[in-house]
Amino acid sequence: MVNNQFKISYFLSIILVGILLFCLGFTHLQEDNPISVYNVYLDGDVIGTIKDKNSFEKFINNKEKAIMRKFGVDKVYMPNGVVIKKVVTYDKNIDSNKEVYDKIIDLKQFTIKGVVVTINKKDEDKKNKPKKIYVLNKKIFDDALSELIKSFVDDEEYEAYMSSSQKEIVDTGSVIKNIDIDEKITYRNSYISIDKNIFINSSKLAQYLLYGTNKKQNTYIVREGDTIETVANANKLNVQEFLLANSGFNSENTLLYEGQEVNVGLINPVVNIVVEVNEVKDEERDFAVNIKYDSTKLQGTEYVSQEGENGLYRVSREYQYINGQLSDTITLNSTELKPTVDKIIVKGDKEIPNVADLSYWAWPTDRPYTITTYFGYRWGSMHGAIDIYGPGNGSAIYAANNGTVEVAKGGCVAGNSSCNGRRGNYIIINHNINNYHTVYMHLSSISVKVGQTVARGQKIGTMGNTGEVYPTPSRSSPYSGTHLHFATTRGDPSAGGLSGNPFNPLTLY
Q1: Of 386, 382, 391, which is closest to residue 372 (Cα–Cα)?
Q2: Cross-strand partners of 191
Q3: CB-based burial, 310-335: b 16+ in 10 Å, e otherwise
Q4: Nearest-angstrom CA–CA distance, 19 and 402
Q5: Cα three-residue angle 173-179-181, rounded to 5 degrees
Q6: Taking a C-beta distance cutoff of 8 angstroms, is the pair 493, 425 a contact?
């Protein structure tokens, strides 16, 4: 009996030990089971381990509500370089969402979804690095670009062009032929770091595109007697630049009032808006004054043998404007509606004098012509001449009055912008009275020499695009920039720049 009891106790002990060992082993196995967690990497290095990716992202969005309100978005994303990967591990050390969040914000900024706009110059000049603009969405940039274009194009004309509803030219009138951007623009969806200058509305971006900055522009308080022209000149702007900076003014004749605040900041567009316009208009052509010399009559004798009459021509031209400034023009057709009758003045003289007759000045180009740039400030500096575009490259250039050729420098070809100190082929004539001189620049060819006496209206060369001209001539557009830079001075202009005391040539006509 005792033996049986012992045996039963022995077997029960073995069973209890077995159960205990089984439980202990099961618990140990449970502790060695792997778990799924998420490693957070920053630029390839682990900076923390979190339990759940979704809860971590929710935590971030709760912490960054100020960013969401600032940019008007409903979600904030990880900084660039942060990657979250699911891993299986036995390590039970898990960081809190706050611990990992604090590590990230110490090193990098969070991001939002946006668009990176890249602007490249079409000439692919390596010196011109691509410009990047960050926007919340592509529509903001497109709307800002439209606002920029409307700085240079009338709103109604722009809308008619965009809707293809421009009225065709019947007899006279104008239409926009094309509106283009001179740069290559690309768009890329991206996660943008919030420390970037991200544009969230088109108006601020439009200002940046026009001025090249979002800094507050210089302003001027109008005084009694001020006009748009005087305010522009005082602030080294031309009238067109002033009108572009002040969209509320329609023309240079708009009246200013005392105490009015106007913008006088110099525009510096980030992109170049190129507008091509086709225009047909009737132009009155001034009659020319021809002087004939009668060798049978004494010097000082003068009479009109034929009165002059202005002519009328219907002229079709194409104009190219870059950022509101006329950059090129092509005369397509010119039809005579009424002929011009030249005025003929007969003067008694036995030889051509080398002294100018200040009563009459000859126009230096053929007709029809266009003045592309007037005397005055342009792009922040003084342009001490007028730029004339005539019938085209190779057309005749004439001496404005009698005189002596003082300078005749050639040897330049189109495309060499630095030739002869950027003047290209040029001529200076000394008119031998009151220190008057005239300057003729960017010529294609020269047909006079130093020391030669020239007569008023005598051909002295041909129009060209040598030296520094704009647009720059190229293989695909060899005649770009063709014009005559015509300057008049009351002193010797040989030193270049604004030497010689230049004055407006149009005051002579």
Answers
A1: 386
A2: 113
A3: ebebebbbebbbbbbbbbbbbbeeee
A4: 128
A5: 155
A6: no
- CATH number of the domain at 361-509, please? 2.70.70.10
Q: What CATH number belongs to 272-351?
A: 2.20.230.10
In total, the chain counts a number of residues equal to: 509
CA 318 to chain centre: 20
Residue 279, number of CB atoms within 10 A of its CB? 17
**pLDDT at residue 30 in the model:** 47
Phi, psi (deg, nearest 5) at residue 21: -65, -40
pLDDT band at 27 (very low <50, low <70, confident <90, very high): very low
- With vertex at residue 304, the alpha carbon angle to CA 303 and CA 310, rounded to the nearest 5 degrees, is 155
Structure tokens at 142: 């497109």
Using 50, 70 and 90 to split pLDDT, how confident is the model at 28?
Answer: very low
pLDDT one-digit tens code per residue, 70-121: 999 999 999 999 999 999 998 889 999 999 999 999 999 999 999 999 999 8
The torsion angles phi and psi of 502, rounded to 5 degrees, stand at -70, 150
Q: What fold, for 214-267?
A: Membrane-bound Lytic Murein Transglycosylase D; Chain A (3.10.350)
Same fold, 214-267 and 272-351: no
CA dihedral 266, 268, 274, 277 (to 10 degrees): 0
**Helix boundaries (H) for 121-254:** 138-152, 155-162, 202-211, 228-234, 239-245
User: Which of 157-171, 238-252, 342-356 has the largest mean confidence?
Assistant: 157-171
For residue 295, the model assigns a pLDDT of 86
* Mode of pairing for the β-strands spanning 82-89 and 311-322: unpaired
What mean pLDDT do residues 469-487 have? 93
Q: Report the 3 state secondary structure along 382-418.
A: EECCEEEECCCCCCEEECCCCEEEEEEECCCCCCCCC
The CA dihedral of 4, 10, 14, 15, to the nearest 10 degrees, is 40
State the number of CA atoms in the 13 A half-sphere of 195 facing the CB. 7
Domain positions in the chain are: 35-108, 114-173+181-208, 214-267, 272-351, 361-509
The share of the chain scoring above pLDDT 70, in percent, equals: 92
User: Which amino acid does the sequence have at 486?
Assistant: F
Q: Kindly report, residue by residue over 167-194, the tens digit of the pLDDT.
A: 999 999 999 999 999 999 999 999 999 9
The structure tokens listed for 5 are: 């009891």
Mean pLDDT calculated for residue range 314-341: 94
What residues contact 500, with CB distance under 8 A and at least 6 apart?
437, 487, 489, 490, 491, 492, 493, 494
